[in-house]
Amino acid sequence: MKIGILSRKAELYSTNRLCDAAHARGHKTEVINYARCYITIEKGKPRLHYQKKSLSNFDAIIPRIGASYTFFGTAVVRQFEMMGVFTVNPSQAIVRSRDKLRAHQILSGAVIDMPSTGFARSINEVDEVVHQVGGFPVILKLIEGTHGSGVVLVESRRQAKSTLDAFYSLKTQILIQEFIAESGGADVRVFVVDGKAVGAMRRTAAEGDFRSNLHKGGSAKVQKLSRKIKSAAEKSAKALGLNMAGVDLVESERGPLVLEVNSSPGLQGIEKATGLDIAGNIIDFIESHAGSKRKRDTIRA
Fold this sequence. Notes:
This protein is an alpha+beta fold and 301 residues long. Helix content is 32%, strand content 27%. The protein has helices at 13-24, 70-82, 91-98, 100-109, 126-132, 157-169, 227-240, 268-274, 278-289; strands at residues 2-6, 28-32, 38-40, 47-50, 53-54, 60-63, 86-87, 117-119, 138-142, 151-154, 174-178, 186-193, 196-204, 219-222, 244-252, 255-262. The chain has a 5-stranded antiparallel sheet with strand order 14-13-12-15-16, sandwiched between helices. It is globular, with a radius of gyration of 20 Å. It starts with a strand and ends in a 12-residue tail after the last helix.
């Protein structure tokens, strides 16, 4: 097979590992900077071009779409879908995962546990929203933030008001979320491929920070999967329609709570912490499903 890897940087660990895993199984790969693609839309003739050549001979693609390129990146993925190319994650599922509000609404409808989360557009409603999610301290999150950016811990009404005033003045959308103190600045990232949890790591925040993201200086080690964590991660990926996902959870007194579902999870942290060939799992998934009849997306959100 010929597999296209949609990535803006060919030198990234995840991109290299996917290429290596595909080559080890006898497949050809091409790294495509999706931000440099261009689309032609005509009646019955969906076309896609990159570096002055047509992208028409791929059996499958692996989207690695950055958060700041979601709109254009998913347009490219959608064009591949229109051309009949198998994609590891569907374009619509990627869009769902990137909007944290929409994703939480879907997870709620799927009866998946998560920290209590509120959303309001007016500063006048903040006191009531904070009350509804359990009171201070609370977490403020940008709806489209990533890698821990746009996440703030606030411990008082004054701090919340000033922070939200700043965010609202920039026309950004903010979630107000319950702070799970007993997690101790740690979370669990579970990697799901083809509906199954294939590996997990525990991430711990750097000293003085509450965010456990590795991009923010957090550390990681292998995590044994409990039945409840495994089930929550697999249900979350399925609820959003993702075939490949990194599901982030915190452990609380009431059980594991889903924080976020990432549609382009990095491979470096999880592979180094677990020693597992996660890239190989992704290529195995493509081998099993590329060319098969696609199921219609039935998620109504």
